[in-house]
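Lest this sound abstract, we think one record worth quoting, the chain in one-letter code, the fold tokenised, each line plainly labelled:

>
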Amino acid sequence: MPAPLRDLPQEAIELIKGFEGIHDGDPTTVNLDPYLDPLDIWTIGWGHAIVQGGRMLRGAASRAAARSLYPGGITLAQAEALLRGDLVDKVRDVQRLVKVELDDGQFGALVSFAFNCGVGNLGQSTLLKRLNEGDYAAAAEQFLVWNKGRRNGQLVELPGLTRRRRAERAMFLGEDWRAASVPVSRGLPAARGRGAPPKPSKNLKNAKKAATPRARTTRPKAPPRPAPARRRAPRTTP
């Protein structure tokens, strides 16, 4: 008897949502419309690839076909339904491919990987081979290999994929995936949030205070007080 489908941890769903984003191909309309993802695939909602005739629609030439499948766009609730439907398939496929025990973090990381890279790639990967051999540490390092995509026919590293693979690796290892996904620039974490500069440390604040001379306000000197008048002794007449 096959095992029942496993529930996907909410943290894994949050990771997937965070990296897929909820983009809108036409902000002038009320609902969410199809858009082109970084790999030139027509997508809608949270990373739902648009398929027609058994193939994914790609490139600007397929814009009309993609829009015809979702002429009025979709609501946020419908985007959530599409995502969860896609994830059911990936949960089933990961359970079928993996032959070793997985905790929630390991399972969630693999489902995110399969959702992004495809079940076929997971099935043929060194990641899965090492995992099914019981070498969890080697499997974790294999996440980082999958950070490239094809642009104009060439395989190039995509910064978004690098961040996602770091996050999935961290989740697989039971670490903080949010911290692992922060972009790194010159050895320092990049700005947090959207355009928000990082808060300066206390040491930096103190250094700035020491380096910046304080403006001195000078009070005008008070005029000298006049000396008290000397009283003359009264003259006496003989």
Summary: The radius of gyration is 33 Å. Residues 76-97 form the longest helix (22 residues).
